[in-house]
UniProtKB/TrEMBL annotation:
Localization (cell): Secreted
Family: Belongs to the peptidase S8 family.
The Inhibitor I9 domain, residue ranges: 81-146
Database matches in Pfam families: fn3_6 (PF17766), Inhibitor_I9 (PF05922), Peptidase_S8 (PF00082)
GO biological process, one term: proteolysis
Chief localisation class: secreted
Signal sequence bounds: 1-21
Name of this chain's protein: Uncharacterized protein
Organism per entry: Adiantum capillus-veneris
Ranges where the Peptidase S8/S53 domain occurs: 173-655
Record: active site: D182, H257, S619
Amino acid sequence: MSALQLPSIFVLLLIAILASCSIHRPCVQATDHPPSPSASYVVLLEGSPVLHYDGSLPDFPLVPRRPDGRIDMSSQAAQLYASFLIDRHDSILNEVFGEGAHLKKKLYSYHYLLNGFAAWLTAEEADILQHSSSKIISVEKDSRVQKFTTYTPKYMGLPGGAWADNGGVDYAGEGIVIGLVDTGINPFHPSFSDRGGSHPYTFPKHFSGKCEVTLDFPAGSCNKKLVGAQHFAAALTASGSFNASVDSASPLDGDGHGTHTASIAAGNSGIPVVIDGLNFGLASGMAPRAHIAIYKSMFRDVGGYFSDTVAAMDQAVQDGVDILSLSIGPASPPEGVATFLSATELAALSAVKAGVFVVQAAGNAGPLPGSVASFSPWIFTVGAAFHNRSYHNSILLSNHQSIKGFGLSPGTEGTAFYNLVLASDSAKKQRHRYRSSLKPNAHETHANTCQDPSMLHEDMVKGHILVCRYSIEFLTGKASLRGVIATTRKLHASGVIVVVDKDTVDADIEPFPSTIPIVLIPGLEESLMLLSYFTTKSNLTVEARIMGGLSPTYDKRAPQVAFYSSRGPDLANSRRLVAEVMKPNVMAPGDMIWAAWSPIGNDDDYFTGKNFALGSGTSMAAPHVAGIAALVKQKNPNMSPAAIGSALTTSASTVDHQGFPLLAQQPSYNLTLPLGPASPFDFGGGEVNPTAAIDPGLVFDADFPDYVQFLCSIQGGEMEVMKATRTICNQAGGVSELQLNQPSVTISNLSGPRVVRRRASGVARHEETYRVSTEQPEGVVVSVYPTVFKLRKGSSDCRKRHGHAGPRRCRLYTRRQQSVELVITITPTSASSRPSFGSILLSGSRGHVVRLPLSIVSRSVTVN
């Protein structure tokens, strides 16, 4: 099949599969009922966008490509065809709803990654539009998007590893543009300055994005580091949810999340993290010399819409970003395999065709199986891990008993012990003292949260350590730790201790910097231990010291899968296609990450007004991988997005820093365990290893035609494929998800021997011999052929290195084996409804080790 046929197949797939989502939708009949409320809709049309255009229309020539292989969007042909698509979008709206309707209803024209538009319509108008023309593939109602919310470069071995291999910290990521679709950016932060370092920044020649200029994002906000910044809020504005007094109609970050993720990916190296005079070390992004382009489609308090996000993605790829990082996604896991065919997923697929590596956060819906936000194999999904640095604080009682907690604060002054005073004992108009009771009355509950200093007697608290209760009011937003600190300061207490009760023992409480000594005790047993002293020693003074928690501690049993990190396939369900794509792909540090912040940001109330914040979530894990992917691309500029993903997956580590198998908090297939053995459905290939990823030895590659063939294999069930499309797909040779050249193998229902094929391509500089070994999953026998093979780098790279000067050398080069097909036979020996896990190891003679995860459920065994 020629490359020129692919756009038509892609379009037919869109027509068939996306149209099936609405083909059974009943027509709206005229009634006397008032029209439904308006909402944003994403409308996809027949016909290729610019990226897929094959030059088949007589009036529009083929769009030329730049020397790097990308579509030249600045060319006259590209601009001409894009204008044609935009005019077509306008004319459809005008034909259906009257002249000038495009000015009132259209929010965006999608023309680069997708052919379609977003419009503000009632449900009745959407239905009319759906049935107005055969050129319309689908009319999909928009939905909301949410956020998936220093030391890590050293923790991940970057300074002496991947950074050194890419020329050192002053060159790591140079020339690579990372685009982030998020909440904007604080352009004035030193993490995004283009000054400093051993040599000046240069503007990336392949990037054509713009820097939007507004009153709060003035000219000069962008530079050679922050090379582009735009905002997309048409759908949010049309919905009436946008509030200009709360957030900015500009790329400025009014939330903090976007600034945080951008600095994790590519913030400058060696930036001091100082908050209220407290120094927490130096911060750096994973690719500190990479460029940043921000595309704001999320807004504080209200989030965003997918139509705005798709517009941002379309613009980012058109501008020429190399990596696209999405720390955002749907508010809940997608239903059915239709996730492969949403507008966002298809935009990401087109981005991959354009050579852009797309990274997305897995989501924070763990630990339930199948809770990841996206299953598409062309998107690289990242889970979150606890790394080995944490901040602990404690109190030392006068009897020398220690109670552990946490708190980013200094200790109480000197070595003296201070009286502990229960907030209930110092409360004004108290009805009775409840001491260690877990059920105080409403008045006491309000006083014990320490939110209102006027409720407490200052003379009883001054100079002592106040003990407050972390009640349910903290979870409902009626109380905050910031209020506790303010009360402590107002009453001139020497410090504060916050204990939990039975209603808040499972609350996810994170430390925050404070110049006031503070200890948070998250455990119920420890909290009751402290409160018991006020009961058993009521006639004695209870004294203690706060020891201080500014210095981090390091745990050798790291990393561990974070409990909140969304997990991969749920093999117990019937969504076979979803279940046989391994997700997440890898995990990366995502808990308690220091990074840049926007002072006006309110994503974390404790860091309002600060330049740095401590954040947790898969939102923090994804930009780690985006930055590392930039290092991989810098070292291997000709690698495809799938090859980069393979390098990251097969080189990831499956053991902790002590060499033991990785653990997960509440592993996905045994949620009753607080901590237990982790599996690929918890961590994918493992924790990302930057130094190994930039030199993977071999990769399992795939490109746009492979993904098209994968989509062609989706027939029946929730997604019907029209007969015409089936015919085209059969001609294309549909490839099932099992045979897609992924760097993993997942089978959800193994009843007899199955043969899986994977093609390995050499990317190492020198020829290498690989030997195959297997870690057998329980109840399964896995064999691989060949067991020994040789590989070296492909001939295209030879031609790029030698050009026309060495044709004979490259001809000889091509005769050597550049790829090999691995035939993997998987045979069940026993049946079980639970998955079993193993791996295929490819060990190279020059030190490369490539690992393919295996995840198998043998539900039944067929006896021949």
